[in-house]
Structure formats: structure tokens, C-alpha cells
Structure prediction request, 103 residues.
Amino acid sequence: MVDSEKRVEALLVSGVKQMGGLAYKFVSPGNSGVPDRIILMPGGKIYFVELKREDGQLTNLQKRQINRIQKLDCQVDVLHGMVEVSNFLLRLQAEQLEGGAGK
Prediction:
């Protein structure tokens, strides 16, 4: 069974919150196709995240918006399904531990 994008998004939001971060819904009037979430983590780390079901595909507009953001040297993670969201959360957790180790 393929998880809904809503369930995938709920996992991301709850995981980020548990680590002390914020997962804002990214809505930019007049700019359709922007990533779903802006993740703000302790230590000033910012992530743009586009969420998809496991079988979901980016639209051409989403691809253009992601490319625009990447041209500004900002990272955009496109996460398909629960497994990729879980792996992303593990990466955030590791980065938080690394950042805290030097402080």
C-alpha cells in the first residue's frame, strides 16, 4: 500500500518537532510549485522539502521552482514516502549531534 502524502507530511512534521525544529508549510502567493515545507532547525540550519508519495512525480513547475532555489545554493530535498522521510529525519538528527559536539 502506498502511503498518502498527508501521512508522509505528518511524519516529517512530528519528527522535526521532536528534535526542537519547526516545519512550516511553505505557501508563496503567486509562486506555485514551491516546496511543501521549510524546515528550521536549531543552529540555524534551513531545509526546503518537497514531499511525494512513493509513486509521486514532480510536476514541471515544481522542477522549475526547485531549480531556481538550487541556483541560489540552497538545498531542496525531494522525499518519496515514509522511508525517505525517516532517512531524512535520521540525517537531521545526525547533523544536530555533530553540531552540538563542537559546542
User: Anything to note?
Assistant: The two ends are 43 Å apart (CA to CA). Residues 81-101 form the longest helix (21 residues). The mean pLDDT is 91.
